[in-house]
Design a protein that fits this description.
Layout lengths: L3 E9 L4 H12 L4 E10 L3 H8 L6 E6 L4 H13 L6 E5 L9 H14 L4 E10 L6 E3 L2 E3 L6 E3 L13 E4 L6 E4 L1 H7 L10 H11 L3 E12 L10 H16 L4 H17 L3 H16 L18 H7 L2 E6 L2 H11 L5 E6 L6 H18 L6 E5 L11 E4 L1
Parallel strand pairs: 1-2, 1-4, 2-3, 5-11, 12-13, 12-14
Antiparallel strand pairs: 4-10, 5-6, 5-10, 7-8, 9-11, 14-15
Helix pairs in contact: 5-6, 6-7, 7-8, 7-9, 8-9, 8-12
Amino acid sequence: MKQMHIVIILPVFGRLDAMNIVAFLRQHTPVNVSFTCLVIDNGNSPRLSNELATLSGRDCQIIRLEKNLGGAGAFREGMQRAAEMPCDFVWLLDDDVELNPQTLPGLLKEYVRLEAEGVRVGALGSIQLGMIHREIITSAGGQLCPYTGRYQSYYIGKTIDTIESKTYPVRYMAATSLLTRPDVIREAGPFEPIFIHCDDWEWCCRVGRAGYRLFVTAASTIHHPEIESKPIDWIVYYDVRNYLWSLQRHLPKTLPIARTLRRVQQCFYWMHGRKSIARLMALGFKHARTGELLLRDELPWSPPQSMTLEALAQAYPRLTIITRTVEEAAQWEARLQALPVKATLIPHRTTLPLPLDLLRLLALQMMAQLRHVLSQRAAFVMEHSCVKRSPFPFIAKM
């Protein structure tokens, strides 16, 4: 391939993983490729900003934002600058990814090959693998159902060798590792400043409308923390607000069903004692309609106080516990043997479609409430959330 120059956009907030990423790029970038890395200092503390400043050099520029604008705002700032710089490609990267020597060469080779075949490529993404289960695909692009607006993700939970075509078309991809051209950004525009979540697929919709095609390739892989490692908290505001706001722009016919599904989720959280999350979802519904947006520090949110099983057993003589499988119910039973509490264990198998799955959980919660109606000292325990998988205990007092 000919000599190429790439502008890399790397937003950074709250961690220094970007130091390792830049060091890796300096060591493993192909000889026919030069790069300028725009490190977006996204409203970090003075200490972290000083650490990032040490990266500044001929191939790395530090762009300081006075406040945290989220991944979307940081990418937007970088894309606006990259579109005006002399370069062949623009590469969007998350600051918590783990690269390998073939990540960038694989993207470049496939992008150039597709264009040589006459394809009007808008963006090309890497296959995303997990950090813990390193062979398992956690993101590989997908499409949105034109009738419900739900995500239809490709190959999640599978391995690379199950992919039929090394490079395949998608309607959206994650911005964890996304390669595009500056001309595409100039024509479709940068990310919308919606802080976090849905920014990448909303942009992909605009790129598709501009007449470009989107692809993901197995020739390029990255490792990225699994979504299961992230607790359910303030992010639900953006999940609701940005999702519905983006559907209004690109798939307005799906809004009634999409709103209904999110309302069921909101009801689920409310009935399980996660009222602060339910209130954030309600705010997201409102701002999706009005177009308003709050930054993270402006959200009416404070983390709930956690309660261990031992403390719960001491406070409540009766518990109802829902688990994912029969095996996990047995594990809970073993934990409860040493505790002075009477427990009802209900294995819950998440094999139903999401709406029916949530309705079944709501029914189980109502049954638990009826079972405890004569006892004011009772509690309901959810082993995990089935709305968005999480390894953390989910405990709600009735």
